[in-house]
Amino acid sequence: MISGQERLACMDDAARLRDALGVRLPESLPEIYLHRVSYPLRDLFLRYLRLMLWSRLNNWLMSLVSVLPLSKSNFSNCANRGW
Question: Where's the Large helicase-related protein winged-helix domain (predicted)?
Answer without folding.
Answer: 2-33
